[in-house]
Amino acid sequence: MQNRVIDGKVVVANSVTKIGSECNGRIIIGASHGAIYAAYLAVKAGARGIILNDAGFAKDNSGVSGANYCQELGVPYGAADTLSCCIGDGESVAQDGIISFVNLEAERLGVKIGMSVIEAAFKFCDAKISKLPIPEYSESRKELIGRAGERVVVLVDSASLVQDNDRGRIVVAGSHGGMPGLGSNSALRCEAFAGFFHDAGQGKDDAGLTRLEPLNTRGIIAGTVDCMSARIGDAKSIYGDGILSNINELAAKFGGDVGMPLKKFIDALIYK
Question: Rounded to two decimals, what is the model's pTM?
């Protein structure tokens, strides 16, 4: 994906997992959720300031947990209201997004809740580039291997950590359930047996759910957990705490139901 640069100052990206040197010294408007790892990737890319999606804030305010990480580095951080724009779509965040959360560095630059994302981004341009060392923040990947004959459950804090050898497995990702790119393959990089995500408050036009139908077409069971039931960006929380909020047709055929604890559904699927 080629990220768009506005006036040489602001980078618009669908996902902060797909950014590079074009972000150095610029402001990033990213359509990723606003948790710590996304903020870390943006700072690591040399961003002067960051605007992400609040993902409905989510359990324990995990959807904006990147704010404190940025504050400690002196980097302005803002989050767009998930209902004002489409998560996973950088152009929607840039054009339609409304600021719902800011850190102190952002406030010092005059950015306020209720301001348009694009106006906030240009205010961020007055920020000094942080020279502080960037604390490492690593996402986790864990494979839950049960008894012989049971399907492996893979917990990944980001769908970007899914591997080709996860084919036929049950994947629980800390990512939002929105499509991060074009084409059904972007919904999940391998032919897993099932894939589960965070609904990120569902978002404008139900953008936080758009992986479900493409995965159904590919024959993959899929669902999202309720925004406030689990921490976004945290696969362990989604697996252990998540309550299903949306499922695709195939998931329903396998006994999934809205309101069911995700772990209960997965416990049944590992024998299929």
Answer: 0.94
